[in-house]
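Please, structure for the following, as tokens.
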Amino acid sequence: MTGKYGEKMIILVRATVLTVGLNGKNEVLEELPIRVIAKQFGLEAVSSLKNEKFDGVISRWDLDDMADGWFLKRLRVAKPDIALVALVRPGDRMQEIAARSLGVRAVLTDDENDEFFRETVADVLGIREIIRIKSVSRGKR
């Protein structure tokens, strides 16, 4: 991985996270020490959950193939201990209330600034500190 100024970094992975329907928001998570498995649709995500262990799931409330929080609702029943973050429509109080009543650890929207989004995910996963180890090549400073 290459850092902001072109330096090479080694990032120690602290968690594996499944993201569902996040589109461009996945890029915000690149600076965290997590492995992100990104899926666009709920059915794809269900297959991934069968084959891999995840520390957390970040999902849009309304997916193209599973509306009205269906994916998160079913996931909460199947895996009650997994850390869930719901991404709801900005200003949609009904989605926010429904997500909170489901017991997700955080509710975010697309209009959250990137830093707040990243910090909230780090808090939910218990990985607030970001570990970076610079590798410096000989002769270069």
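The helical segments are 42-51, 70-78, 93-102, 114-125. The chain has one domain: 8-130.
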